[in-house]
């Protein structure tokens, strides 16, 4: 068995009780034992402004975020869909991590996207919009299985557990595929 794989998980929703966070918790409970994933908080990141890169007072939150993502072996984006795209906070985190130019923390990391929505199409627009950014960032995205979780409001019990066995099985299989993808890329 290969080494433990550390996965950075930026979640798109900033809400304390976000379905993105519940989804992360469920995925980690069902992930292979060598996959260690932790949410990388994005809510306190100041908006990206290149002028601050040259400033001795560069926002400390940027440095902390960059360090956490850079240390990870892979990245798992869990995002809701806002207006057929990703939430502004997640886009800002992507920008902060990609700069300064030539020092992107995303470069050559295996990655994957799981999108969620209370609606029926499971955040399809956000998923594919995010994938466009990943191509430029040189993240190596897992192609299959694609993960669009529609009706997310009905997936969890009040205690955060997954309602049904079929969803648990999908989450378990998805995380096994993530593990296999990381192994394929990193060896």
Summarize the topology.
Layout: E1 5-9, H1 19-30, E2 35-39, H2 60-71, E3 74-80, H3 88-98, E4 110-116, H4 124-137, E5 140-141, E6 147-149, H5 165-186
Parallel strand pairs: 1-2, 1-3, 3-4, 4-5, 4-6
Walkthrough of the structure:
This protein is of the alpha/beta class and 187 residues long. It has one domain (5-186): Flavodoxin domain (Rossmann fold), CATH 3.40.50. Helices cover 38% and strands 16% of the residues. The chain has five helices and six strands. The protein has helices at residues 19-30, 60-71, 88-98, 124-137, 165-186, and strands at 5-9, 35-39, 74-80, 110-116, 140-141, 147-149. Strands 1, 2, 3, 4, 5 and 6 form a six-stranded parallel β-sheet that branches. Strand 1 (5-9), helix 1 (19-30) and strand 2 form a beta-alpha-beta unit. Helix 1 (19-30) crosses helix 5 (165-186). It is globular. The termini are close together. The model has no long low-confidence stretch (mean pLDDT 95).
Question: How many beta-strand segments?
Answer: 6
Shape label: globular
Mean pLDDT: 95
Helix/strand structural class: alpha/beta
CA radius of gyration: 16 Å
Count of separate structural domains: 1
Say what the CATH topology is: Rossmann fold
Query: How much β-strand is present in the residues?
Result: 15-25%
Q: What's the architecture, going by CATH? A: 3-Layer(aba) Sandwich
Number of helices: 5
Question: What would CATH call the homologous superfamily?
Answer: Flavodoxin domain
């Amino acid at each position: 068995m290969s080494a433990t794989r550390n996965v950075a998980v930026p979640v798109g929703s900033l809400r304390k009780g976000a379905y993105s966070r519940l989804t992360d918790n469920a995925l980690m409970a069902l992930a292979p034992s060598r996959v260690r994933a932790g949410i990388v908080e994005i809510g306190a990141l100041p908006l990206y402004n290149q002028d601050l890169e040259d400033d001795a007072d560069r926002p400390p939150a940027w440095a902390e975020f960059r360090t956490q993502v850079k240390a990870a072996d892979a990245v798992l984006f869990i995002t809701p869909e806002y207006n057929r795209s990703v939430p502004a906070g997640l886009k800002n985190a992507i920008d902060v991590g990609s700069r300064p130019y030539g020092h992107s923390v995303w470069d050559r990391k295996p990655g994957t996207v799981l999108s969620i929505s209370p609606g029926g199409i499971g955040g399809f627009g956000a998923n594919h919009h995010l994938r466009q950014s990943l191509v430029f960032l040189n993240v190596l995205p897992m192609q299959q299985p694609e993960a669009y979780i529609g009706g997310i409001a009905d997936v969890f019990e009040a205690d955060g557990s997954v309602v049904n066995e079929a969803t648990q099985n999908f989450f378990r299989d998805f995380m096994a595929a993530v593990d296999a993808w990381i192994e394929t890329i990193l060896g």
